[in-house]
Amino acid sequence: MADSLEVSKRTIYRDIATLQAMQTPIYGEAGIGYVMRKGYDLPPLNLDVEEAEAIAVGLSLIARTGDVGLWRAAGRAARKLNEVAPGTRRLVASSWGVADIETINLGTLRRAIREEQKVTLSYQDASGRPSNRTIWPLALIYYVDAVTIAAWCELRAALRHFRLDRVQGWSLAEEHFTGRGAALLAEWEATQKPETVLTRDF
């Protein structure tokens, strides 16, 4: 299943645990196997992770149109999407677009966010000062002229933002921060998101 969906086994196990927590009648355990109770059907939405993420970002960008009716419809669709793909809230789009990013693979970075995998960066700040960072990626923010990642920075022991066009080099670290991302994301949403990106909530 992991191979066909192009995700890690860890992601499959976590998603099944989430479904079980939502009272979905799936029985079994990791490494043994799973069985769904006969006669139970999942909601009729067949999107892979990338498709769900693309729709989530696209729905957010509808705010650019100025069409109030379309924006309200996007809000209804976004709420339905979040019910079946709650991880899509980790992709945050402002009301404007962004140029192509060539310094970092956004698909791999989004997967690192989903799988709570640490990332190492060779980074250059606005003054041109270089530094090496290990970050815990939490959310992507799409601006008109740049993409920024919100992350926990091990060097600063705090939440920080990194513009991807200032990344000189990067790689996935071996370590994960499994189980700690949700609390950090909630902290970022409560303390820094309102001051970092202007968004219109659904």
How would you explain this protein's 3D organization?
This protein has seven helices and eight strands, in the order ααββααβαβββββαα. With 202 residues, it is an alpha+beta fold. The strands form two sheets. Strands 3, 4, 5, 6, 7 and 8 form a six-stranded mixed β-sheet that branches. The protein has a two-stranded antiparallel ribbon with strand order 1-2. A hairpin with a 4-residue loop joins strand 5 and strand 6. Helix 3 runs antiparallel to helix 4 (68-84). The model has no long low-confidence stretch (mean pLDDT 86).
Q: Rough shape?
A: globular
Report the helical percentage.
Answer: 25-40%
Total of helices: 7
- What series of H and E elements makes up the topology? HHEEHHEHEEEEEHH
The percent range for strand residues is 25-35%
Gap between N and C termini: 33 Å
Rg on CA atoms, Å: 18 Å
Average of pLDDT: 86
Number of E strands = 8
Counting helices, strands and paired strands, the structural category is: alpha+beta
* pLDDT < 50 stretches: none
Sheet bearing the most strands, described? 6 strands, mixed
Distinctive features:
globular, two-stranded antiparallel ribbon, 8 strands, alpha+beta, 36% helix, 202 residues
Chain-wise SSE layout:
Elements: H1 2-5, H2 9-21, E1 26-29, E2 33-36, H3 49-61, H4 68-84, E3 91-93, H5 106-115, E4 117-124, E5 130-142, E6 147-153, E7 158-163, E8 167-176, H6 181-191, H7 193-196
Parallel strand pairs: 3-5
Antiparallel strand pairs: 1-2, 4-5, 4-8, 5-6, 6-7
